[in-house]
Amino acid sequence: MLHINDLTYRIGGRVLFDKATVAIPEGHKVGLVGRNGTGKTTLFKLLLGEVGADDGSVSIRKRARIGTVAQEAPAGGLSLLQTVLAADTERAQLLGEAETADDPGRI
Q1: Which of 14, 29, 56, 105 stands 20 to 30 A from 82 (CA)?
Q2: Sequence spans of domains, the chain
Q3: Helices 80-87 and 89-100 meet at what angle, rounded to 10?
Q4: Over 70: is that where the pLDDT of 71 sits?
């Protein structure tokens, strides 16, 4: 689904990614959290093609989906985890179906 190979990216002389390599298999879901200034937003910009890498490559399958939430979590009583899980509509649909299903094969 997603392959990052030897990705290098610098901002103002600061190296954010130095030959980074990762592969996320099809069907997997991952989350990215971390301190401010560590390159999370920049990584998404690289994945979405909004900025170009200094070196390396990014390959994403056409049917892959990349979802994001605002950098600042919405105000309210939900935790960051609850906010992210609420955005997963497929998960919400399956949980709703599981609560009302009466066919043992569907539970």
Answers
A1: 105
A2: 1-68, 70-101
A3: 80
A4: no
Q: Are 7 and 53 in contact (CB under 8 A)?
A: yes
Q: Closest Cα partner for 69 from 28, 31, 95, 29? A: 31
Distance CA 9, CA 43 (A): 9
Task: Report d(CA 106, CA 42) in Å as an integer.
Answer: 41
Element (H, E) at 17: strand 14-24
Rounded Cα–Cα distance for residues 52 and 85 (Å): 30
Give me the mean pLDDT over the 15-21 stretch. 95
83-107 pLDDT, tens digit per residue, is: 777 778 877 888 888 888 887 776 6
Does the model's pTM come out above 0.85? no
- Of the chain, the end-to-end C-alpha distance in Å amounts to 28
Task: Report the distance separating Cα 53 and Cα 5, nearest Å.
Answer: 11
Q: What angle do CA 63, 80, 15 make, to 5 degrees?
A: 70
